[in-house]
Write a structure and sequence with these properties.
disordered N terminus; 7 helices; Ribosomal Protein S5, domain 2; twelve-stranded mixed sheet; alpha+beta; disordered C terminus
Length: about 280
C-alpha cells in the first residue's frame, strides 16, 4: 500500500491560522538510513551521527489556534494526550495554544519519528528555528523540524542538510514497540557494538527483542535485499519498490517540495486553510 502525500510548508508565514481559522498540518515520517553511536556523555546520554530523510508517509494535525485540548485518532492506546505528548510540549515551547485533532498514520515506537514529526510540524507552523531547544523535546525533533535529507549529529541538535536524492523504500513495521531507552541501555551492556548494516543500534534491538529477526528475514526473502533497521526499531526497510502484504512503499520528500498551500472546503462551509507543515 502507499502512504499519503508528503509534507510542505505554509507559504503564508509562521503562525498562519492565528485568526482562529482551522489549519491542517502534515507531519511526515523520517527514516534513518544509517546511525553510528559516536560517544556517551557523562550523564549517560548518547551522541550519534546519522543520515536521515523525510518520507511521504505522514500524520495530519487539524489545528484551531487559541483553543485547547488534543484528540488523537488512530495509532493505538499507548499515545498520551496530556502534557507528555510531544505536540503539547511543542506548543509549550513556542508559547502557543491550540485545539488539535491528530490523525496518526505513522506507527509509534517504530523508529519512524511519529511523535517527533508531529512536534516538528508545530514548530514549523510557529516559525520556531532553535534546533537545540527542539532537540530538547526529543532527539528526532530537530530533524523533523528541518526535514529533507541531512546528517544529524550530537544529541540530534546538529542538522546538516544534504542535497536531495529521490529514493523509494519498502517498509515493514512489526506489531512490536521498541522502547528507545531500553535499546540504548542494551547497546551499553553489549559493549557498544557496530551494526553490520550501518545501524549500531540493530544488534542491541535484536538483543532486547529477538523476535524482530522474523520480520527482517521475511522481508529479505521477499525482496532479495538485506533489510536495515530504522533507528531503534521496530521498522525494517529496504531500498526499492516491493509492494506486498504488510509492506508500505514510501518515497523521499525534498524540503523544496514542501512550499505549497491549498484551500479546501471546511466542514462548516468556510475555506479551511491547509498548510503542509
Amino acid at each position: 500500500m502507499k502512504p499519503g502525500d508528503g509534507s510542505a510548508e505554509t507559504t503564508e508565514g509562521p503562525g498562519a491560522g492565528d485568526g482562529g481559522h482551522p489549519v491542517v498540518l502534515r507531519a511526515p515520517a523520517k527514516l534513518t538510513l544509517s546511525l553510528a553511536v559516536t560517544g556517551v556523555r557523562p550523564d549517560g546520554l548518547h551522541l550519534i551521527r546519522a543520515e536521515m530523510v523525510t518520507l511521504d508517509l505522514h500524520d495530519t494535525l487539524e489545528l484551531t489556534p487559541g483553543g485547547s485540548g488534543l484528540t488523537v485518532i488512530g495509532g493505538g492506546d499507548d499515545i498520551p494526550t496530556g502534557p507528555d505528548n510531544l505536540v503539547n510540549k511543542a506548543l509549550g515551547l513556542v508559547g502557543r495554544t491550540a485545539a488539535i485533532r491528530l490523525t496518526k498514520r505513522i506507527p509509534s515506537q517504530a523508529g519512524l519519528g511519529g511523535g517527533s514529526s508531529d512536534a516538528g510540524a508545530i514548530l514549523r507552523w510557529a516559525g520556531f528555528d532553535d534546533l537545540e531547544a527542539a532537540a530538547g523535546l526529543g532527539a528526532d525533533v530537530a530533524f523533523c523540524t528541518v526535514g529533507g535529507r541531512a546528517i544529524v549529529e550530537g544529541m540530534g541538535e546538529v542538522v546538516r542538510p544534504l542535497p536531495f536524492v529521490p529514493l523509494i523504500f519498502t517498509l515493514v513495521t512489526p506489531p512490536l514497540a521498541c522502547p528507545t531507552g531500553a535499546i540504548y541501555r542494551a547497546w551499553d551492556e553489549l559493549g557498544g557494538p557496530t551494526g553490520e548494516a550501518g545501524n549500531d543500534l540493530e544488534p542491541a534491538a535484536l538483543h532486547v527483542m529477538p523476535e524482530l529477526a522474523r520480520w527482517r528475514d521475511e522481508l529479505a526473502e521477499a525482496t532479495g535485499r538485506r533489510p536495515r533497521l530504522a533507528g531503534s526499531g521496530s521498522t525494517w526497510f529496504v531500498e526499492g519498490d516491493h509492494p506486498g502484504a504488510g509492506r508500505v512503499v514510501c518515497r523521499t520528500v525534498d524540503r523544496g517540495d514542501r512550499a505549497k498551500t491549498e484551500n479546501t472546503p471546511g466542514h462548516d462551509g468556510r475555506a479551511t486553510a491547509q498548510f503542509d507543515a
